[in-house]
Design brief:
The complex is a heterodimer of chains A (348) and B (626). Chain A has 348 residues and is an alpha/beta fold. Chain A has a domain of 212 residues: Rossmann fold (3-Layer(aba) Sandwich). Helices cover 31% and strands 18% of the residues of chain A. With 626 residues, chain B is an alpha/beta fold. In chain B, the strands form five sheets. In chain B, strands 11-10-12-13-15-14-20 form a seven-stranded mixed sheet, with helices on both faces. A six-stranded mixed sheet of chain B has the order 3-4-2-5-6-7, sandwiched between helices. Chains A and B meet through β1, β2, α2, α4 and α11 of A and β9, α9, α11, α12 and β17 of B. β12 of chain A pairs antiparallel with β9 of chain B, so a sheet runs across the interface.
């Protein structure tokens, strides 16, 4: 991560309002998308970007309406294709701040191929993946992140597909940044969005987003006061993995297996626990699997939120620009030279 | 060159106007290289030239089989030539499969130079000849002039002291044949010697061996009695003085995109996915980084076009190249480009379909897909190139229309143009049309709101690119309100926008040249109306028919949508209209639909280009019926 992103121009006078378009958001009342939109508007002034240098690109789905509500440049494309559109834009205009709004259907189903290839290439995009584990805009079919057993109109007997694990998919695809946030926790979401924006490379932020109409309360265990503390763990760089209402539980690594420990009962101190290091891809891979552990074991392993992984790696557009600069080290070739070619001959 | 003065006896040299030669052999015999070298030599000498490679879709089909035959055909001449020749006059057959696969296209009385080692029992069997049959010995070639030459044996003898491995020695046999052909057509060896020295500069031994094999072939011609009756030939070079280069259609497309970006002052972005026979466009542009060209090899065809749309939205000259199956995958995105009204060049190098079809063979069967292959009503200009060099001008024109009319444009080429080559007199930058992007300037807060879909008198909207202050706006694939571009589901507005999008394309007809008659009278019995790569065959056939006194003319369409404004008038000036197409009749649909006339169609759907003899026969038949 670098904090000196060249696209950022100091502009202290702007507020969230300067990033709000004149269009009224047409999402359902109570939809998590409203909260995400608000945090995006809030974070923009903190980034020091000016609206004309920001572009929101999206595909199709509820989440993909987001560009219409930002007073920046915006393109609402076709289903699943936001990432290649954003890549083409970023590659040709590296100085722009390019954001992608996408959903679990858009990014992981119809756009799955683009998802994995974009991550490995690492263009500097900020990708906000609204994960509601359902198709909303087409009215309630199961998505590639729906849990096994979920009954929907296209899975009346329950979903039988193994869902995608977004974190594991991102890391497995060679992504350089993965974070998870939650629509209801606005302040935290904003801090994650800021880190994502500052990360140079493809930042993938998965946001658990509630769909009150077709998949209400899918993330309830991480939201309600009495269960939240035991079911969630907030990752902090260099800090031990501690959770629980009393902050008396933690995660310790037993080989490659994460184990929940009770600090009081087992007489352990926080220094015995797993210390979070977002630069460690092996630990990030284990963190990514916490969701699977949660679903399978008797013991509840809390769901991680925060930045799992952040790797400094050259971006696609910078690597390409470097090759072009190298090819032009003796100057930019002329149109005349182009037309003449390298193997012309003269007939006298 | 002193070496070739070794000639010890006088051999008769006959002048000819043009010759068509086929180099054919196994995929591993180096026939493409041999043909290319021969073509370079005659081009540099100043001959008119047209070349066409023909190779299997497998990288290495089983050696010795018909499937593995690779050919390189060329016609060189003292007068302009537009095809590699309907039939060849000379065939080099390095093996029996090459002979068998191509004999039907050799003129009766034509010359066969056969590499005898390729006619042994094993090769004859692989080529599918019955046991005991050998065309070199059993009289089946009595109508041709056959020269059996033990090419491999002579190459080995020539290189026995080269120190190379026997595998490397054997690989030089194509150079022996090349040398022999240089002798036969009184051509110089210097150009190829220089090329070999450059090509193998890191392996001088190999360079010397190839050169030695070539000279051995040349001297063989000189010393043998084999060609005593035939003699040698001279095709006098006639090309006007000037600077030339040889280009294939695919190279010309790539150069045109780069040139258009330079002329327009835009950065070029190509989003692409490899597909035969369009890939060389991506490959050529990937090597043009010194011109600032950005190529993006995407994960699939869809990402190829969509990344280009992203780049176009950002203000680049954006393009994507593909062939039929890829165009099919891109169609949803084409609709997006239509509704976004951003400039985009789509080069479709057509091949035989449907599905994977004939990947390495040309066809003109994507015309109706280019016209109509989108959901909803999504009109866009369609233009087609007629020759390898014309691939430059047509692609350049596609870029001009795209940028100046803010629309995706489909530029059609095909597998024949893609790989064929011809000499091109180096173009001057001053001769290229200006391309003027209509960027919307920055807006001050007190100015009127920016209307992304406000149009000028050509119905073209302005290009408002990110980074421009005061123009922040949101657009997308949803139907938009006229002028504001805001999402609109209003019924009347949708109908209005549908009409506006169609009318915008129709008005391009006001800015393109009128259709001209390529050859022949302005009024007469028959008009041959062509499009695309059949140009050369039609041109040659009509020239011939005119010489024979027929009342026939040739018009060749570059602009298929919209048509030139005078096309209807032209069609009315002839008693009959003939439309030859490498499909089951697609342009004919469009002509009937637009002009309510009944042209005569002439279809060829064999993955093989028309030849001039076929078209000439059709012309004379039709005129006789009048």
């Amino acid at each position: 991560m670098t904090d000196n992103d060249t696209t950022i121009i100091a502009s202290p006078v702007l507020t969230a309002k300067d990033f709000a378009s004149d269009q009224e958001a047409k999402w359902c009342p109570g939809c998590g998308d409203h909260a995400i939109l608000q945090q995006l508007k809030n974070v923009m002034p903190e980034l020091g970007v000016t609206p004309e240098n920001v572009v929101f690109v999206s595909g199709i789905g509820c989440s993909s309406r987001l560009p219409y509500y930002m007073a920046t440049y915006g393109v609402h494309g076709i289903h699943g294709r936001a990432l290649p559109m954003a890549t083409g834009l970023k590659v040709s205009r590296p100085e722009l701040s390019v954001w992608v709004a996408t959903g679990d259907g858009d990014a992981l189903s119809i756009g799955g191929n683009h998802f994995i290839h974009t991550l490995r290439r690492n263009p500097d995009l900020n990708v906000i993946l609204f994960n509601n584990e359902i198709y909303g805009l087409t009215k309630g079919q199961y998505s590639p992140t729906s849990k096994i057993g979920l009954r929907t109109i296209t899975s009346p007997s329950g979903v039988i597909d193994q869902p995608f694990n977004t974190a594991a998919l991102t890391i497995g695809s060679g992504g350089s940044f993965f974070a998870r946030a939650f629509d209801r926790d606005g302040k935290y979401l904003r801090s994650i969005l800021k880190r994502a924006a500052l990360h140079k490379g493809t930042s993938l932020v998965e946001i658990y987003q509630n769909c009150p109409i077709f998949n209400n309360s899918a993330f309830e265990a991480f939201a309600t006061l009495d269960t939240k503390a035991d079911n969630t763990i907030y990752l902090e760089q260099g800090k031990p993995l501690v959770f629980g209402k009393e902050k008396n539980k933690g995660i310790r690594l037993d080989g490659f297996t994460p184990v929940v420990v009770d600090l009081d009962k087992e007489g352990l101190s926080t220094s015995d626990l797993w210390i979070h290091n977002e630069a460690d891809i092996n630990k990030a891979s284990i963190l990514a699997r916490f969701a699977d552990v949660h679903d399978k074991s008797e013991e509840v392993v809390p769901r991680p939120f925060g930045i799992f992984y952040a790797e400094e790696r050259v971006t696609y557009e910078d690597a390409l620009t470097a090759q072009i600069r190298d090819a032009q080290k003796n100057g930019v070739a002329s149109l005349e030279e182009l037309l003449k070619g390298e193997s012309s001959y003269v007939i006298k | 060159m002193t070496d070739t003065k070794k000639t010890t006896r006088q051999v008769n040299v006959t002048s000819k106007t043009s010759v068509s030669v086929l180099f054919a052999g196994d995929s591993g015999d180096g026939m493409q290289l041999t043909g290319t070298q021969f073509a370079n030599t005659v081009a540099v000498r100043g001959s008119e030239l047209n070349t066409f490679p023909n190779f299997p879709s497998e990288i290495r089909a089983p050696a010795g089989t018909i499937a593995g035959v690779s050919g390189f055909q060329l016609q060189f001449s003292s007068k302009p030539v537009y095809t590699p020749g309907a039939r060849f006059d000379v065939m080099v057959a390095m093996n029996s499969a090459a002979l068998k696969a191509n004999l039907k296209d050799l003129h009766r009385g034509g010359i066969i130079i056969a590499g005898t080692e390729g006619f042994d029992e094993k090769n004859l069997k692989l080529a599918g000849y019955p046991e005991g049959a050998n065309p070199l010995e059993d009289g089946t070639l009595d109508n041709y002039i056959v020269f059996p030459v033990p090419v491999l044996q002579f190459t080995r003898e020539a290189l026995k002291e080269s120190g190379l491995s026997s595998k490397d020695v054997d690989r030089c046999k194509n150079m022996f044949v090349l040398g022999l052909l240089y002798w036969l057509y009184t051509l110089p060896l210097e150009g190829t010697i220089e090329t070999l020295q450059t090509k193998f500069q890191k392996n001088i031994q190999l360079a010397e061996a190839n050169i030695k094999a070539m000279k051995a072939g040349y001297f063989f011609g000189d010393e043998t009695e084999l060609f005593a009756n035939l003699g040698r030939f001279d095709i006098a070079p006639q090309k006007q003085h000037g600077t030339y280069r040889r280009v294939t259609g695919n190279e010309a497309c790539a150069i045109a995109l780069t040139a258009a970006s330079k002329k327009a002052g835009l950065n070029l972005f190509l989003g692409s996915y490899p597909i035969t026979p369009a890939t060389e466009i991506l490959q050529t542009l990937a090597k043009k980084k010194k011109y600032g060209v950005k190529t993006f090899q995407a994960e699939d065809e869809i990402a190829g076009i969509v990344s280009s749309i992203g780049a176009a939205y950002g203000g680049a000259l954006a393009a994507t190249n593909t062939s039929g199956p890829g165009l099919a995958l891109k169609t949803e995105a084409l609709g997006l480009a239509v509704i976004l009204e951003v400039p985009l060049v789509i080069i479709n190098v057509q091949r035989g379909g449907p599905s994977t079809g004939l990947p390495t063979k040309p066809e003109q069967s994507d015309l109706l897909m280019a016209m109509y292959g989108r959901h909803g009503e999504a009109p866009m200009p369609v233009i087609a190139a007629r020759s390898p060099v014309d691939c430059f001008y047509t692609t350049y024109e596609a870029a001009r229309i795209a940028v100046e009319h803010m629309t995706p444009v489909i530029c059609l080429s095909d597998g024949y143009l893609a790989l064929s080559s011809e000499p091109w007199e180096v173009e001057s930058p001053d001769n290229l049309a200006d391309i003027t992007p209509r960027f919307q300037p920055a807006r001050k807060p007190e100015d009127a709101p920016y209307l992304p879909y406000k149009r000028d008198d050509r119905l073209v909207r302005s290009w408002a690119i990110p980074g421009t202050k005061g123009l922040e706006h949101r657009i997308g694939g949803l139907e938009k309100q006229n002028e504001t571009g805001n999402v609109s589901h209003d019924p009347e507005n949708h109908e209005l926008m549908t009409k506006l999008r169609a009318e915008k394309i129709a008005r391009i007809a006001d800015t393109i040249p009128l259709q001209s008659i390529d050859n022949g009278p302005q009024k007469g019995d028959l008009l041959v109306l062509g499009w695309g790569s059949s140009y050369g065959a039609i041109k040659t056939a009509v020239e011939q028919a005119l010489e024979e006194g027929y009342s026939v003319a040739h018009a060749h369409l570059r602009y298929i949508h919209p048509f030139p404004k005078n096309l209807g008038t032209i069609l009315g000036n002839y008693k009959k209209v003939l439309i030859p197409e490498m499909n089951s009749g697609q342009l004919i649909h469009l002509i009937r639909d637009a002009f309510l006339i009944a042209p005569v169609g002439y279809s060829k759907v064999q993955g093989v280009p028309f030849n001039e003899m076929e078209i000439l026969a059709k012309i004379t038949d039709l005129i006789k019926e009048i």
